[in-house]
Design brief:
Number of strands: 9
Order of helices and strands: HEEEHEHEHEHEEE
Shape: globular
Strand content: 25-35%
């Protein structure tokens, strides 16, 4: 599956593919993936998964397709296949009735190929860096009701987001169904910090990638 694009373990790759493309709660779990074939062999792949967006005060959800995994088999690279695959997939998504396609995590090479294939930049493509000049002094002022868990609380998390998120901007649809799906990725382990008593006041999610040599965790 994707020639080791995610890991060297076929079972893990298959599980991740099912989670990202088949178990995705948007569009009734219908994957939108495109392949390049050469002499009855798959030599290229591009996948899109669906996410829901909300605009302003509306509670209606607009589906957008997000360009994700792209892979060209060694020996077939440097021949323009990535750009042709981009153009073909975007054209097919347009014919299927999807008004928006996004790329949210493209590397430099994929970013440039996307622009050459017809995508447009909606913000500057620049690295963001925070330079810490002094050692921070953290103080946890509120420890009452602090819980560390390994499972999400989809219902409570969705209710908290609904109360707190601004209504005057474009935002990701984070409802109960989204939270039930989001943290089941087989490539990561998650720790959840919950704050509150009878109701959830705040949460923090920490991610540990299990197949990469990565120290520590990151906040997601």
């Amino acid at each position: 599956m994707l020639w080791g694009h995610w890991s060297q373990e076929p079972e893990v790759n298959a599980s991740y593919f099912d989670w990202k493309y088949r178990q995705n709660p948007i569009l009734d779990c219908r994957p939108h993936c495109f392949v390049v074939r050469h002499q009855d062999r798959i030599v290229g792949f591009k996948g899109y998964h669906a996410i829901g967006w909300r605009f302003g005060s509306s509670t209606d959800t607009t589906t957008a397709m997000v360009a994700g995994d792209t892979m060209i088999l060694p020996g077939h690279r440097g021949r323009g296949l990535t750009e042709r695959l981009y153009r073909y997939s975007l054209d097919q998504l347009g014919h299927s009735g999807f008004p928006v396609a996004l790329s949210l995590s493209a590397g430099p090479a994929t970013y440039l190929r996307g622009l050459r294939s017809g995508m447009r930049a909606i913000s500057p493509y620049l690295p963001l860096q925070r330079i810490r000049t002094r050692r921070p002094r953290w103080r946890l002022r509120y420890t009452r009701g602090l819980e560390i868990a390994l499972e999400p609380r989809p219902v409570e998390m969705a209710e908290l987001v609904s109360e707190c998120e601004p209504r005057n901007r474009v935002r990701l649809c984070r409802d109960k169904t989204f939270f039930e799906w989001r943290y089941r990725s087989p490539l990561s382990r998650y720790h959840f910090l919950y704050l509150g008593g009878d109701r959830l006041d705040a949460y923090l999610v920490l991610q540990k990638r299990i197949l990469k040599r990565q120290r520590g965790m990151r906040m997601v």
